[in-house]
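Appendix B, record 7
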Amino acid sequence: MKLRNSVGVSVLCAVGIALGSVSPAGASAEARYTWLDLITGRGYSGTTARLSGTEAEVPPRGPSLDCRDEQRSASDYALSCSGTDFHVFVDCSNGDRYAYGRGAGEYRIIFTCPSGATALRGGASGA
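C-alpha cells (predicted):
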C-alpha cells in the first residue's frame, strides 16, 4: 500500500512538472535587446517578438552600413553597427529570428534569445 501511494504521488508530481513547463498555446517567445548609442552613451532596452515568415538567408546590407565586433556567447549575440537606417537580427536555436531597429547612428546592439535557446548567428540589413 505504501509503495503504491508513493508511486502515485511520483506520477502526479511528474505530470504536474511536465504541464507546468509547457507554454500556453499561442504564446510567443520574446528575445531581449539592448541598444547602446556609442556616441552619446545612452541606451535603451526591451523585448521583441519573433518575426513571422522569415527567410533563412541574411538580408542585404547597404554600402553605407558598417558592422563589426560580432560576438556570440550562449544565448547572447552582439554587434556594433553604424549607418543611416538599419535593422539588426539574431537567429536563435528555437528556429526563430528576432529583429529590432531602425538605427541611425552608431550603436552596440545585444540580443538575448528566449530561455533555453542559443544564438546561432545574426547580422544587420539596411543602409
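Remarks on this record: Strands lie at 30-37, 43-49, 66-73, 76-92, 97-112, 119-126. Residues 65 and 83 are 5 Å apart (CA to CA).
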